[in-house]
Design goal:
Blueprint lengths: L3 H9 L8 E4 L7 E2 L3 E2 L9 E2 L3 E4 L9 H4 L6 E16 L14 E4 L11 E4 L15 E8 L5 E2 L10 E3 L7 H9 L4 E5 L3 E7 L3 E2 L10 E2 L2 H11 L3 E8 L3 H11 L5 E5 L9 H4 L5 E6 L2 E2 L3 E9 L2 E8 L3 H20 L9 E6 L3 E2 L5 E9 L9 E4 L18 E5 L5 E2 L4 E6 L1
Parallel strand pairs: 6-7, 13-16, 13-17, 14-15, 17-21, 19-24, 22-25
Antiparallel strand pairs: 1-12, 2-12, 3-11, 4-10, 5-7, 5-8, 6-9, 18-20, 20-21, 22-28, 23-27, 24-25, 24-26, 26-28
Helix pairs in contact: 1-7, 4-7
Cofactor: Mg(2+)
Protein name: Molybdopterin molybdenumtransferase
Function: Catalyzes the insertion of molybdate into adenylated molybdopterin with the concomitant release of AMP.
Length: 428
Amino acid sequence: MIPVEAYVADLLAGITALEPVEVDVADALGCVLADDVVARHAVPPFTNSAMDGFALRAADLGDLDPATEAVPGADSSEPTTPITLPVAGDIAAGDNAVYRCEPGQAWRIMTGARVPEGADTVVKVEDTTTPAGIVALPDEVTILRVPRAGANVRHAGEDCRVGDVIIRRGEILSPAALSSAASVGYARLKVRPRVRVGVVSTGDELVSAGNDLDLAQIPDSNSVLLRALLERADADVVTVTHSGDDAEEFAATLARMCADVDLIVTSGGVSAGAYDVVKAAADTIDLRFNQVAMQPGKPQGFGRVRAGDNSALLCALPGNPVSVFVSFHVFVRPVLAALTGRGDAAQAVTVAATTSSGWRSPAGKRQFVPVHVTWPRQAGNTPIARPTHRLGSRSHFVASLHEATGLAVIAEDVTDVAAWSIIDVIVV
């Protein structure tokens, strides 16, 4: 058997990130940015009003109260002697006309509208005698509360200027990042593409979920599990299929897939049985098998499928559902990260937790136990991890797997896990 870290290193050796592609900004969520996003527009692109109100010159409001003039974040001073100014006109958001605010004049202005030349302050409509809402343009406005100079004005370029680097290459694009890219002028972005994946569940005993079972049949839950795990990891699942225990059928299935995918993930057929189809097909594909020092998930395989000019990476996982679940988080996720250029950003999140019960762990193997994690309400308290089944870690316990929010990680040299001891938990 080889250690878990050694097997991960073997998996990742030689994997290079997929070539960048250009996609619509709306389709780039979760992708890794391949080029810096450099601002093509300033934000804001023009000086505009932060409020519905009246744009004017602060100098026309007289001397401001020194006690309130420089208070950070203060919009208005205390009520003062009302000041009345004539209203020159309306400025709506999106109005491209050029307006000028002359001395002693005010313009009614809407949120987001361009501030007229000469104006440097906006008085909120609530601080005037003009009612809020849809009302006719008044001839004059009386200001009841004097704002500080420059209040309620968003200045051009105060968030960013043209040429500023907004998002750096290598960052994973979040919803907010996509909004930022659009705000500085980008409709398309160069990214590392999502990994195109094909899923193959193997075994004559499998039938599609929902079908009646004969004596030796079981539902195919692995294909459902792998598809969902891959999609949650931002992979593009191109095809999901089943192969029986015929080596030629299995090899032909892989050959067809590799024209359309970057990675194939299989479940089952990698142990030491007489009908293990993945091992039986190893002569026709470039595939290596290992016994990894872990429980569950000891038998693993990886390699590359080639058919003509096409090829795809292959991760061959064991067939028991909990083994598939564990193997995905421990091995497949790092492969996806390497292909998309995510690197350390996609590493598993591990927390320290205390166990609510004790159990045995096999000597010389790293044990991964599905656990339900209860998070503390108070900061500083330790999360509590409870095994999802009273009988502990069994590779076929799929019916209780839905309760797992973490995988307890028990080191190879630990054989007894004591109740209320501190352990590492991978958050899943």
